[in-house]
Design goal:
alpha+beta; 15% helix; 10 strands; 1 helix; Lipocalin
Length: 146
């Protein structure tokens, strides 16, 4: 008789748990589509380093700008060491989740570089890592939109 009550309690407990779980409403959350990254506008350098050395006290970046348009073109204003040396076209490896950006200077060959698009201090930033010419020199530029 004791086994009967133990088994009965076990079935009752399982039944209550099943009933409790079945009564829960499950809301399905569909993932939203990631938007295409729009970098159109004028960007200025706020941080720059070469091989880990801060370049901001050494080089005047105040006049340098990279202007991106929505059609995939870029323009360099007051050029300094950069991924590309002339104006041209740009493209992402993936428009929604880019990890690389490719610059193709007019009349030049495509050059790809690492691309980050974080928000820091409430402002969208671009972080580009590249080696113009000499592969021993690694530059990291952090830019913000004007």
């Amino acid at each position: 008789m004791d086994n009967f009550f133990k088994i009965g309690h076990a079935y009752l407990l399982i039944g209550l748990i099943t009933l409790g779980l079945a009564s829960c409403k499950v809301d399905r959350v569909l993932p939203s589509a990631e938007s295409v990254k729009d970098i159109s506008g004028s960007w200025k350098v706020i941080k720059a380093s070469r091989n880990g050395t801060d370049l901001i006290p050494l080089i005047d970046y105040s006049q340098f700008r990279v202007k991106f348009d929505a059609k995939g073109a870029y323009t360099l204003v007051n050029p300094l060491p950069f991924v590309a040396s002339k104006d041209g076209k740009y493209a992402f490896d993936d428009p929604n989740y880019p990890f690389k950006i490719t610059f193709t200077a007019n009349g030049g060959t495509p050059v790809s570089t690492a691309f980050n698009y974080p928000v820091s201090g409430g402002a969208r930033q671009l972080t580009l890592t590249f080696s113009p010419g000499c592969t021993l020199n690694n530059y990291v530029y952090t830019l913000v939109k004007e």
